[in-house]
Amino acid sequence: MAETITLQATKRDVLGKHVRHLRREGKIPAVLYGPGFEPLSLLVDWIELRPKLLAAGGSQIINLDVEGDETYNVLVRNVQRRPVRGDVLHLDFYRVRMDVVIRTEVPILLVGSGDALEDAGGAFTHEKNSITVECLPGDLPSSIEVSLDLLKEVGDMITVADLPQLPGVTYHADAEEIVVTTSYLTSAGAEEEEGEGGESEPELIRRREEEDEE
Prior knowledge:
Low-confidence stretches: 196-211
Number of strands: 13
Structural class: alpha+beta
Mean pLDDT: 86
Shape: elongated
Number of helices: 4
Strand content: 35-45%
Radius of gyration: 27 Å
Distance between the termini: 84 Å
Helix content: 10-25%
Largest sheet: 6 strands, mixed, barrel
């Protein structure tokens, strides 16, 4: 499990359209919910929330501290944003129990240099960016790392079957589903050189024809 992220929150009495002035003050409305749990309306400070939201995404557990009285293990389940500008308007926190298995989406992170593939004149395409996992909250990885060094030559690929086996973590995807594919790297420079060569040949032919006429 990744490093713990802690976020402070306060209880919220203001509801509906009246929360607009709270956003102008840098406070983001939120709701905390979960099985067998009475939903709580909350406020979180945007300055504190922003870096922690980026770090946690929807796949890392956050310790949500509500006014110093209660701490809840939560996942970010939904983030509502303003169209165009993308400002956060509201978010949902889903309360998890550490002894109950959860299923959630986790990003797939590419690591390694992939030098062998590059030396072979190839390039890779990241086809599958995330995968559904099932595990206890304490075993939840922040990401699934897969090494590009598995790719040795053009034609190689990485599938779900090649993902690392993590203790207590089950993948929910077809083992043959493609994560990374490879193809030959197209050289723009080589294409330009070939194009220039193709244009010079008619010029040489014209010169020879002119010499013959003389």
